[in-house]
Amino acid sequence: MIRTVLGDIAPDALGVTDSHDHLFFASVKLPGQELDDVPAAEAELRAFAAAGGQALAQWTPMGLNRRAEELPALARAAGVHIIAATGLHQAANYRPEVLPRLLDGLADRFVAELTEGLRLDADPDGEPLPARAGLIKIAGDFHHLDSHAQTVFAAAAAAHHATGATIAVHLEGGTHPLGVLDELHGRHAVPASSIILGHLNRFPDTAPHREAAEAGAWLGFDGPSRGNHATDWRLFDLLTALVAAGHADRVLLGGDTTTAAARGSSGGGPGIPFLLTGIRARVIRELGTEAADAFFLRNPARAFDVDWRG
Fold this sequence. Notes:
Layout: E1 2-4, E2 7-9, E3 17-21, H1 38-50, E4 55-58, H2 71-78, E5 81-83, E6 85-87, H3 99-103, H4 106-115, E7 135-139, H5 147-163, E8 167-170, H6 177-187, E9 195-198, H7 206-215, E10 218-221, H8 235-244, E11 251-253, H9 274-287, H10 289-303
Parallel strand pairs: 3-4, 4-5, 6-7, 7-8, 8-9, 9-10, 10-11
Antiparallel strand pairs: 1-2
Keywords: Hydrolase, Metal-binding
Organism: Catenulispora subtropica
Protein name: Phosphotriesterase
């Protein structure tokens, strides 16, 4: 089953999916660009639905203004399945006084949010909300894993083994995908099929992409991106290479809207709907409907499908 904020659904009910995006997000690294506008989030989600979108995975983890209390109402209002995240980002995204509290009993926090309910970011030790997380979001660092990442990866792996949840990984600048796989799969025995490697378009090297696909991991491409537009033009080269190599069945696509300026409804865009009106439309034209159905329908339904435990 796929765990959404309105309950568990069968994989074939998920539909056309944005596999990596943010309705709400705030980081100390992006001052003044917080995603914290509920009406704007609803407008984005409604526009996404109007473009044919049926599901969205919000990768915003604990402590970064994920607004968990708003997600069920937004899902109902727009008629879009929302998959929420537990997890923890790089230390640099948090105020120093916040991290120690979140790191205390981290694996148990992840498990509780996956099985009992999300907590408010303002009260991480409070009562669970009715909505539960459906994935674990964690992050590597540029070409390596620092001590913070190693701690978080170990907690995420423990939570995976307790629940079965998919682990979605922010790769800094798209780097270190095989090192991340080695840490989660090799060291912590997480199946590669339960790992999503995000931001691969930001480091457009096809060799590790193919190797990760051959290992059975999910390959996340999250363009268009205002923050990383310099590599966005390589997206279709990478997708074409993976399709040619027989790995269309490992690809996930998302918009990764992380700043107010990136919203189409209230900023400069291109906004969440562009993933369908721009990217998906071009996938159909250049790679065909079979590839588009794999990227937006079949693959997300498999990647987020979990035999839930706990």
